[in-house]
Structure formats: structure tokens, C-alpha cells
């Protein structure tokens, strides 16, 4: 039997939604790619510039300070210029920074270009989820919102695979030359390709219907809503609903986020703390420093890059699990399940690293503890990916009231980047001081994240954005 015209129309409509959502999520791909590309390059940077753990941690984490600044400003920029125009600007800035990162003449020069790249990533991290939430029909919003995290994990996996290939072409040493540049420079310069793809797709996707209504482009809003919600939806009523919400509000500023709870609205604090817990469990230690970590326990440089890639595959698998379940089970159950799994696996990793012997580059684990550390790292990534990795981005895109969404998302995303920076910049020194102690700290935050969701996070599954508040 053939498909009916209605079914074919629904498939075409859903296919269009998936396309524009995936295009917007390429900003997440940039985030993931840049986050993990430094993992392969960090050894080369240390050797080339002859720097220690403090300088290394500062340079790796420099992008995160830029990301906080980019996220902080992106909400207002997106409200003023539009979601797609802001994404285009982010793509251009990231492309320029990719060239700068590949050609640094000093460690501080590389750090500056990392900051510039971070600004672009921060802008995309706010604009992408907000755009996806605003174009996605409520029935699909959780799954489509998950595209942001899926793009991040695909970016991580892609960059680690590229790092491995480049390292192999350079004879297994990232300080070897490939033509005019060392291998680690090619790793950083390869970020240019996804940046140009993001620019291309941000140019061809439609603007958010809520932004179009807000600036008086109602005819365009009708067209976009018909494209994304289908012909069987009363588009005029949907536009009227958006207009009704917009009439009762004014342009949000940081002043609108003020409230009685420690100076901010309660919902804003929930967004900030969700962002902080997502980072304080230490997930980016795995993606920024895993190759150095595995080298420190006796695994060769090229093989450590391959193990790092395997964690990315686990990350992708977990993300697909979350996409399948986020609209069925809801946001809270996934978050709490992930918190339990992360706490157990991080505690196991802490136990394994407590048996480490030696110092500096001569650290080694006994065979049993080495195997436990590898398994625990992969289990941790799996539970993070199927829960906090996906659901936090979904919630940040949908949990805030319309009138403050972009501004509140900016604050929450900035908190996420600052938290990421704190974890990233402190890990090299913490690992030299007490690697097991660092993982005990991350496990503690995983336990606290469970309690936070249990008592403070509300379910948003199936609710219209206009109902949030």
C-alpha cells in the first residue's frame, strides 16, 4: 500500500523541521569540535611552548571565558538582530579564530585566539537552543532540542577522529611537521571547515516565528509557522497567541531577571544551577584532558587519542538514548537516572586513581585499577550523555517564560561556561596534587545534582512555550 497524501505531507513537514533544527544545531557541533580538538593538541602545545600545567590549563580554558562573554551578550543580540543573523556572526568570528589558533607565535597569542573562538561558541550556545525551541512543535520539542547536544557529541567525536588521523599522518607525534605546520596546528586549524558550514546553513534557514512577530514581520511569521507546524494547525491562532503574549511584555533586560531569591527570579536560579551541575561533575575533564590522562597511566600517545575517540562513540550512543526517551519519560527522570549513574562511576574512578604510583609524567596504575578507570570513564560518559548532556540544553531552551527567555538563557549559559572554565583550569593542578581527590569532588557534585533535581526542577514535557512561567 502507498502512503496517503496526508502522510506524505506530514513526512515532508517533519523532514523540513529536522533539517532547520539540525542546521541551527551546527553551532553545537562547533562547541563540541573546539572543546575536544584541544584534547589532541594539548601535548603538542606544552612541548612547543615549553609550558607547565598552570599555563596549559589557562590556555585550554581561555576559550571558556570567551564563551561566557559570548553567551552573556547573545540574548540581547538575538533579540535585536534576530536568531539567524546572530548565528551568522558567530560563524564568521569562529572561522577567523580557527586561522588564528593554527598560527600562534606565543602561548599568550594562542590564548587570545581561544578567547575569540569562545565568544563565537558562547553566542551559538545561546542562540541555537532558543531558536530550536521557538521553531519546534511542542510534540517534538524535546527530541528536536536534543539535536543541540547530539551536535556537540558529534563534534567531539569528529574532532577526536580528525586528531587521530592527523597524528598518524605525522608519525604518531603531534609535534612532528606536516608540510609547513606541526600536527597540533593542523588540528586547531581544521575548525575552519565546520565554521564555514555553520555560516552556510545559518544563511538559508528561516528566522524564528516568535522573533518575526516581535518585530512586526507577521506575514513571514505565518509562512514559517506553516512550514514548521503544518497545514493542519491554525496558524492565525498561533500568531495571535504569540502576539497576545508579546503585548503583555516589553523587551527584557537584566533588570527583569531580578527577584526575591538572592536577587534573581527562582526560575533563573534553577537555570543557573542546572548549568553549574552539568559542568561540576567534571565531564569536560574527559574531553579536554583524556589523552593526557591516559598517557599518564602508561598508554602511548596515539593509542590515547583512539581511547578518547571511543568515549566519544559512547557519548553519541547515550545521546541517541536520550533523544528516544526525553519526550516519553520526561526531563526529570532522565536527569535523576544520570545523576545516580555518574555518582557511582565517578566514585569507581576515584578508587582506581587512588592506587596511582609515581609522579608527574611517570604516574602509573596497576592493571586492575587501570581497567576499572577505563570502564568507569566510559560508564560516566554514557550516563552523562543520556541525561544531563541532553536534558539541560532542552530545559534551558524551553523552561523560561517567553518574555525573558533569551536573556535568562544568556545568564544560564554564561554560568555554564564559567563553571566549565573553573573545572578546566583547575584540573591540571588538581591532578598533580591528588587525582583521586579530584574525582571524589566530581562524584560529590553528581550526588548533589540528584537532590537538586528532586526538589527544585519542574517537568516541562509537552507544555507550550507560552505556558512557561
Number of helices in the DSSP assignment: 19
Give the CA-CA distance, first to last residue.
46 Å
CATH architectural category of the largest domain: Up-down Bundle
- Strand composition percent: under 5%
Spatial order of the strands forming the largest sheet = 1-2
Task: Just give the CATH class of the largest domain.
Answer: Mainly Alpha
What Rg is obtained from the alpha carbons, in whole angstroms?
22 Å
Mean pLDDT, all residues: 81
Reported by name, the CATH topology of the largest domain is Growth Hormone, Chain: A
Bulk shape: globular
N-to-C series of helices and strands: HHHHHHHEEHHHHHHHHHHHH
Helices and strands, with pairings:
Layout: H1 5-24, H2 26-49, H3 53-81, H4 83-102, H5 107-135, H6 141-145, H7 147-169, E1 177-178, E2 181-182, H8 183-189, H9 192-204, H10 209-214, H11 218-229, H12 235-247, H13 266-280, H14 283-296, H15 301-325, H16 331-353, H17 367-385, H18 388-398, H19 405-456
Antiparallel strand pairs: 1-2
Describe this structure in words.
The protein is mostly helical and 469 residues long. The chain folds into two domains: 9-205, Up-down Bundle (Growth Hormone, Chain: A); 260-468, MFS general substrate transporter like domains (Growth Hormone, Chain: A), CATH 1.20.1250.20. It contains 19 helices and two strands. It has helices spanning 5-24, 26-49, 53-81, 83-102, 107-135, 141-145, 147-169, 183-189, 192-204, 209-214, 218-229, 235-247, 266-280, 283-296, 301-325, 331-353, 367-385, 388-398, 405-456, and strands at 177-178, 181-182. The termini are far apart.
Amino acid at each position: 500500500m502507498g502512503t496517503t497524501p496526508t502522510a506524505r505531507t506530514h513526512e515532508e513537514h517533519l523532514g523540513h523541521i529536522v533539517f532547520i533544527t539540525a542546521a541551527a544545531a551546527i553551532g553545537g557541533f562547533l562547541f563540541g569540535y573546539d572543546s575536544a580538538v584541544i584534547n589532541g593538541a594539548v601535548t603538542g602545545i606544552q612541548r612547543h611552548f615549553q609550558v607547565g600545567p598552570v599555563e596549559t590549563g589557562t590556555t585550554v580554558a581561555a576559550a571558556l571565558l570567551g564563551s561566557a562573554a559570548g553567551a552573556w551578550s547573545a540574548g540581547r543580540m538575538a533579540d535585536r538582530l534576530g536568531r539567524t543573523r546572530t548565528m551568522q556572526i558567530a560563524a564568521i568570528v569562529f572561522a577567523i579564530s580557527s586561522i588564528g589558533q593554527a598560527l600562534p607565535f606565543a602561548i599568550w597569542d594562542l590564548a587570545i585566539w581561544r578567547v575569540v573562538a569562545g565568544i563565537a561558541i558562547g553566542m551559538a550556545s545561546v542562540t541555537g537552543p532558543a531558536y530550536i525551541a521557538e521553531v519546534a512543535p511542542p510534540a517534538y520539542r524535546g527530541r528536536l532540542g536534543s539535536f543541540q547536544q547530539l551536535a556537540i557529541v558529534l563534534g567531539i567525536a569528529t574532532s577526536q577522529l580528525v586528531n587521530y588521523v592527523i597524528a598518524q599522518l605525522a608519525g604518531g607525534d603531534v609535534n612532528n611537521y606536516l608540510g609547513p605546520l606541526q600536527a597540533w596546528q593542523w588540528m586547531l586549524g581544521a575548525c575552519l571547515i565546520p565554521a564555514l558550514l555553520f555560516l552556510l546553513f545559518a544563511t538559508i534557514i528561516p528566522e524564528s516565528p516568535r522573533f518575526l512577530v516581535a518585530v512586526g514581520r507577521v506575514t513571514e511569521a505565518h509562512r514559517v509557522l506553516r512550514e514548521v507546524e503544518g497545514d493542519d494547525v491554525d496558524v492565525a491562532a498561533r500568531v495571535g497567541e504569540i502576539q497576545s503574549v508579546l503585548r503583555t511584555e516589553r523587551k527584557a533586560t537584566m533588570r527583569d531577571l531580578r527577584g526575591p531569591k538572592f536577587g534573581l527570579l527562582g526560575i533563573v536560579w534553577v537555570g543557573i544551577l542546572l548549568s553549574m551541575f552539568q559542568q561540576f561533575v567534571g565531564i569536560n575533564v574527559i574531553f579536554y584532558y583524556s589523552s593526557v590522562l591516559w598517557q599518564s597511566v602508561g598508554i602511548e600517545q596515539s593509542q590515547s587519542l583512539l581511547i578518547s575517540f571511543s568515549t566519544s562513540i559512547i557519548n553519541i550512543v547515550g545521546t541517541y538514548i536520550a533523544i528516544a526517551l526525553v519526550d516519553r519519560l520526561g526531563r526529570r527522570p532522565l536527569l535523576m537516572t544520570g545523576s545516580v549513574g555518574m555518582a557511582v562511576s565517578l566514585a569507581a574512578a576515584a578508587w582506581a586513581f587512588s592506587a596511582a604510583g609515581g609522579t608527574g609524567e611517570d604516574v602509573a596504575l596497576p592493571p586492575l585499577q587501570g581497567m576499572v578507570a577505563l570502564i568507569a570513564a566510559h560508564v560516566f560518559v554514557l550516563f552523562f550523555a543520556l541525561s544531563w548532556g541532553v536534558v539541560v540544553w532542552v530545559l534551558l531552551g524551553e523552561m523560561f517564560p517567553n518574555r525573558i527567555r533569551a536573556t535568562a538563557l544568556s545568564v544560564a549559559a554564561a554560568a555554564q561556561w564559567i563553571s566549565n572554565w573553573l573545572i578546566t583550569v583547575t584540573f591540571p593542578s588538581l591532578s598533580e596534587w591528588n587525582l583521586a581527590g579530584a574525582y571524589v569532588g566530581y562524584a560529590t557534585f553528581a550526588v548533589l545534582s540528584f537532590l537538586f533535581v528532586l526538589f527544585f526542577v519542574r517537568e516541562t514535557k509537552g507544555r507550550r512555550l507560552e505556558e512557561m512561567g
